[in-house]
Design a protein that fits this description.
It contains 26 helices and 12 strands. The protein is mainly alpha-helical. The chain has 5 domains: 146 residues, no CATH class; 130 residues, no CATH class; 73 residues; 166 residues, no CATH class; 69 residues. Helix 15 packs antiparallel against helix 16. The longest helix is centred in the middle third of the chain and has 26 residues. The radius of gyration is 39 Å and the shape is elongated.
Length: 681
């Protein structure tokens, strides 16, 4: 370049020269507006590939006050990628901001994003920066464009994921995250939440808005609070106080609470509407969105249950009523750990089968050396029920146990409960079925497997009742029901119940290929007990099998009650199922022929139909006119039988033979002198 060439000079020699020459100014370009990176769309910043999306990247993203939004990732900013995201690099502020952060803080944040934003070591400041972006997407972008609300479900999933990884790291973050989830859940309020499955809520998160809305909707609809919703309520409401035992054993407490609640309130606690209505306001964490009033949701005209005292008092009473049993369980857990292990082992044993055992053998599992009476057996059944192990017979409802009990795992039920009449008819039909099959020795234990699928097909029963009936038939297979007890059960049935049972018996007779004479005789007796027209029954059986019906000659056979055949026709749908069942049960061509095993008659039996142990017990009873209950408990234990079950069985045999009971009273227990004379004769 020539130094004297003025056209080439970069600087003028004098101010005058400078003023005469035109000057060009370079205007910098306008910063580009940041863009939202959708979910699972990777972005590339500072040489890092960041998966997952859900970020704002660009040069400009103003908040409400005009300053850069703290979530904005500005690619122009310098970063230090060697920074450790486990450390807090935002040392001069409680609320991080990417634009104002140091290069180390920005580099740490980008590395946490690149690593999948899941590392448990990450400092909470990184999670806050990401959270601010989710808030902006909801409260600014979705307000401007309503179609963005379609992304709310994805944002909810991301919030749940963040809670899983970082909820325990910061109470402030957990509370803010739950608050934003509440807003997303009730952005469009679902109807009748009280009828839906209840999500799991952490008690430490407080009284969840979901539960308050569900309870408020039930109150508005004048519906009772279901038991499961009440359980969720007491878990999350800080006004309901739990005892130490309840906190240590929440699963046992839940079982006790649900049972006690249903006993106290049936379908549920009914609550009157209150004056204060439920509302919800969300206060954003990001300073770019923050204002004094917050963002409110319209939840509808529903009561704010948190200001009502009477429902809380009612729930607290249920909680307190559970305390005594919980304390017993707590002491067992601490002072008798081997018993708790025995409970655990028993739960495994009945997981997928029915366990038949004697009451004494059951007690021996828990190292109990005392004689098991009815009170102790009920106490044991209550402990088992708390572990979802049920006992048949249902001694907790007042049933008496014999020499054997059946244990099985309980099942939860969905929907309405089975009407008691349906349960009684189903159970009674099975009892009649097995009595009939045992007549003449045609019953075999391998036929139990044929009953199970038919019980499953009775969809008028809940799953819990189906499971109980399966246990019941296995108990009946080793402890048949005496005819005398069937007579008492029939007497308690109304006409509709008798029609239902008779329909099942007719279906059996119509489906079987043949009937043994013993079966025909018992069929006639059972129909007589039901009050059927014996001539009609004999006509049908004779037409089908050519076998006459031998009716019983006792007075009760001619009760004068006629079977409602029109009612039977209405019940044929259920009868078809029973017919298929009985066709299998009474098939005279078993797959594996085997000699029938019948209970041998006891020689010199004191009363007909009793086994050796019960006959010996009767002979000892007849030695005196009266006994104390304690004496008979000891006597029964020596014969390895249960006193109450033995007395019931003996009285049934006595009624069957002499039409009068053998014993009377509870303590002392008196012997009927007329029975003494008849047996001695």
């Amino acid at each position: 370049m020539n130094a004297n060439d003025d056209s080439k000079r970069l600087f003028p020699d004098s101010p005058a020269e400078a003023g005469d020459a035109p000057v060009d100014y370079l205007i910098p370009p306008q910063p580009s507006m940041a863009r939202w990176s959708p979910r699972n769309v990777a972005v590339h910043i500072a040489g890092l590939s960041i998966p997952g999306g859900m970020l704002y990247v660009g040069e400009r993203l103003p908040g409400k006050d005009g300053t850069p939004d703290p979530c904005l990732i500005d690619p122009r900013k310098t970063v230090e990628l060697k920074a450790d995201y486990a450390q807090d690099h935002h040392v001069h502020t409680d609320w991080p901001n990417y634009s104002d952060a140091s290069p180390r803080a920005r580099g740490a944040y980008l590395r946490w994003l690149a690593d999948g934003r899941s590392s448990p070591e990450a400092h909470i400041s990184n999670i806050w920066l990401f959270f601010y972006g989710l808030e902006r997407r909801i409260f600014i972008d979705a307000v401007a464009d309503r179609s963005i609300s379609a992304e709310f479900s994805q944002i909810s999933k991301e919030l749940h994921r963040l809670l899983k990884h970082y909820g325990a790291k910061s109470a402030d973050f957990s509370r803010q995250c739950y608050g934003l989830l509440n807003f997303l859940t009730f952005y469009s309020v679902p109807a009748r939440l009280y009828e839906q499955a209840i999500p799991e809520f952490l008690p430490e998160a407080g009284f969840a808005l979901y539960l308050r809305v569900a309870i408020g909707q039930a109150i508005a609809d004048k519906r009772p609070i279901p038991a499961e919703l009440a359980w969720a309520w007491i878990r999350c409401d800080p006004d309901v106080k739990w005892g130490a035992a309840a906190r240590r054993h929440p699963d046992v407490f839940r079982t006790l609470f649900l049972a006690q609640y249903r006993r106290a309130f049936g379908d549920g606690l009914t609550i009157t509407e209150g004056r204060r209505k439920l509302g919800y306001t969300y206060l954003p964490a990001s300073h770019a969105l923050r204002d004094e009033t917050g963002i409110s949701l319209d939840l509808g005209d529903i009561t704010d249950v948190t200001v009502l005292s009477e429902p809380v008092m009612a729930l607290q009473k249920i909680v307190d009523d559970c305390a005594p049993e919980l304390d017993v369980h707590d002491r067992l857990q601490q002072d008798w750990p081997q018993a708790m292990q025995a409970l655990s082992d028993l739960k495994v044993a009945v997981n997928d089968t029915v366990l038949l055992t004697s009451p004494q053998a059951l007690a021996s599992r828990f190292n109990a050396n005392t004689v098991i009476n009815s009170d102790l057996l009920r106490g044991l059944a209550k402990v088992l029920a708390q572990q979802q192990i049920m006992m048949e017979p249902d001694v907790l409802s007042g049933a008496l146990a014999g020499n054997t009990v059946a244990l099985y795992a309980s099942l939860p039920d969905a929907g309405d409960e089975t009407p008691a009449s349906s349960c009684d008819i189903a159970s009674f039909s099975l009892e009649l079925l097995i009595v009939l099959a045992q007549a003449g020795g045609v019953w075999r234990d391998d036929k139990l497997a044929l009953l199970d699928p038919h019980i499953d097909s009775w969809d008028q029963l809940t799953s819990a009742w189906q499971q109980r009936l399966k246990a019941r038939i296995r108990l009946l297979s080793c402890e048949p029901v005496p005819i005398a007890s069937l007579q008492h059960r029939i007497a308690a049935l109304d006409q509709a119940g008798r029609d239902g049972v008779a329909s099942n018996l007719l279906a059996m007779a119509q489906n079987g290929a043949s009937l043994m004479p013993e079966e025909v005789t018992i069929l006639g007796r059972l129909f007589a007990l039901l009050g059927c027209d014996m001539a009609q029954l004999e006509q049908q059986v004779h037409a089908m099998f050519g076998v006459p019906v031998i009716a019983p000659m006792d007075d009760q056979a001619s009760s004068g009650i006629k079977l409602d055949l029109a009612r039977i026709a209405e019940l044929q749908q259920d009868s078809v199922r029973v017919s298929a069942l009985l066709g299998d049960i009474f098939s005279d061509e078993p797959a594996h022929p085997a000699p029938a095993v019948a209970t041998p008659a006891v020689a010199n039996s004191a009363l007909p139909g009793l086994d050796a142990a019960h006959s010996q017990f009767v002979r000892r009873l007849l030695a005196r006119a009266a006994w104390s209950r304690g004496e008979l408990v000891t006597m029964a234990a020596q014969l390895d039988i249960m006193l109450d079950g033995a007395l019931e069985r003996i009285n049934e045999a006595s009624l069957d033979a002499f039409d009068m009971p053998c014993t009377e009273g509870d303590d002392p227990i008196e012997i009927n002198p007329e029975i003494h004379e008849r047996v001695s004769a």
